[in-house]
Amino acid sequence: MTSPLRSVTPLVFVTGGVVSSLGKGIAAASLAAILEARGLRVTMMKLDPYINVDPGTMSPFQHGEVYVTDDGAETDLDLGHYERFVNVRLSGKNSITTGKIYESVIRKERRGDYLGATVQVIPHITDAIKRAIDEATQGYDVALVEIGGTVGDIESLPFLEAIRQIRTDRGAEKAVFMHLTLVPYIAAAGELKTKPTQHSVKELRSIGIQPDVLLCRSEQPLPDGERRKIASFTNVPERAVISAIDLDNIHKIPMWLHAQGLDQLVVDRLQLGDRAAEHADLSDWVDVVDAAEHPIDEVVIAVVGKYVDHKDAYKSVGEALKHGGIRQRTRVTLKWVESQDLERHGAEQALEGVHGVLVPGGFGDRGFEGKVLAARHARERGIPYFGICYGMQAAVVDVARHLAGLEGANSTENDRRTPHPVIGLITEWRTRSGEVERRSEDDDLGGTMRLGLQEARIKPGTRAHALYGRDVVGERHRHRYEFNNRYRPQLEDAGLVISAKSMDDLLVEMIELPDHPWFIACQAHPEFLSTPRQGHPLFVGFVRAARERRAGGKLLKEAQA
Question: Fewer Cβ neighbours under 10 Å: the N or C end of the chain?
Answer without folding.
Answer: N
